[in-house]
Amino acid sequence: MVNIAIAGGSGQVSHEIIDALVASKKHTITILSRKGAPAVLGTPDIRWKTVDYDDKLSLIDALRGVHTVLSFIQLLSDPGQKSQRNLIDASIAAGVKRFSPSEYGSKGTVHMSWWEGKEKIREYLEEVNAGGQVLEYTLFQPGLFLNYLAYPHKTSKHVDPLQSVFDFENKRAILVEDYEDAIMTLTTVADLAAVIARAVEYEGKWPKRGGICGNRMTFSEVIELGGRIRGEPFKIDKVSIKDLEAGDLKTSWNLEAVHKAVSDEQASALLKAVSIGILLSSIKGAWDISNEWNELLPDFKFTQAEDFLGAVWEGKP
């Protein structure tokens, strides 16, 4: 049994991981939140602690006796990543053994300004461990959620559908000219949750880089798969590096569905930035995820893209 604290436990991805941890019936789970506990927690296996991330002493007190901290703090709502830095400091002071920062996406952040906070936290974790390990940690990185290629259909309990540059609904995609072989790693939310549930029980040392590789595919392979599943070739909008680097997205369509954490005022600019950022970062290897957790959990069977998407889109117009 592991005593686990979940920071930012009200988010969609964190809910998926919490469900997987509860289902294992092996752990004590405490949710740390700025908000008070809801009237009904849904299960007696979960505790709730209201915390102030600006108060390190209260954080230390909340983390006493905790073995593993999983952070899901929303990066965009944590300017300067002060909350996560304080959480790391408090974890060390409270004697926490393992820490997972708010990651759950690409390995690189180049051209993705909304994820700049990840680099700051990665650097901080290196800094606090520079003189010798004081906090074991891993960066859980599954690439892009395969579930997003099912948009607008919801394929997980908590994570809402979001669009990507691969639009299976309308049989179209966007790719960078001359970079059809750029790599995109696609992993289901359920597989991410299952791997994390196994990882908290893992008795060996956590790898710093925690790649989770469900499906490693080129852009052209994803598009070809989409054509087979949807019954006709995808319409391709090709964009140039020069235009993207200039902030121009010269396509016939763009993303429309935005994450709930993003305000209406931010939505339009962010959706454009997300498309440009994913495309530019992909050609620099940001989504070519490593496979550390695949190797550490060799018996785990990942959901295959063709099986998953075939089932989602079967019979749909």
TrEMBL record:
Q: Which Pfam families match?
A: NmrA
Q: Keyword set for this entry?
A: NADP, Oxidoreductase
For whether the record's keyword set contains Hydrolase, the answer is no
The record's Gene3D superfamilies line, in alphabetical order, gives: NAD(P)-binding Rossmann-like Domain (3.40.50.720), UDP-galactose 4-epimerase, domain 1 (3.90.25.10)
At the top level, the lineage of the source is Eukaryota
Q: Name one GO molecular function term.
A: oxidoreductase activity
Residue intervals of the NmrA-like domain: 4-267
Report the family membership.
Belongs to the NmrA-type oxidoreductase family. Isoflavone reductase subfamily.
- Protein name in UniProt: NmrA-like domain-containing protein
Which organism encodes this protein? Clonostachys solani
